[in-house]
Write a structure and sequence with these properties.
mainly alpha
Length: about 375
């Protein structure tokens, strides 16, 4: 954004300062009286060019900022509404059928982009083997668990459970990744986050009014993601294929896995009700396929740290959508607990500020 404007300004400033020097070198020529006027004109022209370039660059930077902010908002909406789409989809289809449709439509979107960009799928058998495990941990299993969970819990609760992924990730990284060491800040965030989960579930009331089976499924789904991320980090970190190619292959494998399993546990649908069908299509094409493309672009433009902040908007949007469109009941402990969960997740992802170097007092000597 703004850092892209700086080189242009530096170039113009060097031009402005270089012009008088060049004129000074020509003072030995007979036309010495014209030197000051030429220098003044050159400097004025350079300054005008500098102001013009700055004025042009500023709106461009603002436009780019608005561009990624708009895509960030779209990604938050799409992922937040995914829990509503799951809920509506399970009203017409079995949970595994909803999940199969989700990964199939998502895979079609990514494959279409691969064709347009003329990118190839991975060819290494080793890569495909690791992607098979990743597809199960990151797509087939968690998507299925969320679909089954929403048979008995509201979409608002499922969205809040999804926000616990950073908490699980922090806990698992301490065990599985030796380079990730816990700090007091991150441990405090972990404890705060799980306190928020207990608040959402109404633990002081004996979890009254909450289906524990569905809740455990939703929490288990959110646990699958960091397990999958750690596996991918350990096995596929050095692969040279693009993220688009790898994700397209991963969704293809998830589709194949569910295509095998779904007929074993479900019967063919007797009909295709339009609203649940559209929900499944939106869940796959938008919440899985398009969402990846937006996220990939955001990470490339603004970096993963800012892009991952979308995690904190998902439960807010999921809750608002469930209450407004599905008329789900919302007790006071749900939003309060959700805020505690998000605060804990933010702490686990934060890093302490580097300490400032100590400046010796004026007049003191640093030598012996």
């Amino acid at each position: 954004m703004c850092y892209e404007v700086a080189p242009r300004i530096v170039d113009l400033m060097s031009t402005a300062t270089g012009a008088p020097t060049a004129s000074a070198d020509t003072t030995t020529s007979p036309a010495t009286t014209a030197g000051p006027t030429a220098d003044s004109d050159t400097a004025t022209t350079a300054a005008t060019s500098l102001r013009s370039a700055t004025a042009t660059a500023a709106p461009t930077a603002r436009g780019r900022a608005r561009g990624w902010q708009l895509r960030f908002a779209v990604l938050s909406l799409v992922w937040g509404f995914s829990f509503l789409f799951i809920k509506v989809g399970t009203q017409g289809f079995a949970p595994l059928q909803v999940t199969l449709g989700r990964v199939a439509f998502g895979a079609l979107v990514l494959l279409a982009v691969l064709v347009v960009k003329r990118e190839r799928l991975p060819r290494s058998a080793r890569t495909w083997a690791h992607l098979t495990v990743a597809a199960f941990l990151l797509n087939a299993l968690p998507f299925s668990l969320f679909a089954y969970a929403e048979l008995t819990i509201p979409s608002t609760l499922a969205g809040i459970c999804n926000a616990t992924s950073p908490l699980w990730g922090m806990a698992l990284s301490v065990v599985a990744l030796s380079e990730d060491r816990p700090t007091r800040r991150r441990v405090a965030g972990l404890g705060l986050g799980f306190l928020g989960v207990l608040t959402v579930l109404g633990a002081w009331q004996g979890f009254a009014g909450t289906d524990l089976t569905g809740t455990v499924m939703a929490l288990g789904a959110s646990l699958c993601y960091p397990i999958g991320w750690i596996y991918v980090r350990r096995t596929l970190a050095g692969v040279s294929h693009s993220h688009l190619s790898m994700s397209g292959a991963q969704l293809l494998l998830a589709t194949a896995q569910l295509a095998v399993v779904t007929p074993l546990f479900t019967t063919a649908p007797t009909g295709y009700p339009i609203i649940p069908l559209l929900a499944v299509f939106a869940l796959g094409a938008l919440g899985t396929g398009l969402a990846f493309l937006i996220q990939y672009g955001l990470v490339a433009e603004i970096g993963p740290t800012t892009a991952q902040m979308v995690t904190y908007f998902i439960p807010v949007i999921a809750t608002a959508a469930g209450v407004a469109l599905l008329h789900e009941q919302l007790s006071w402990n749900t939003p309060v607990g959700a805020l505690i969960v998000l605060a804990g997740a933010a702490l686990t992802q934060s890093r302490p500020r580097p300490s400032r170097p100590t400046v010796p007092p004026t007049g003191s000597s640093t030598t012996n």
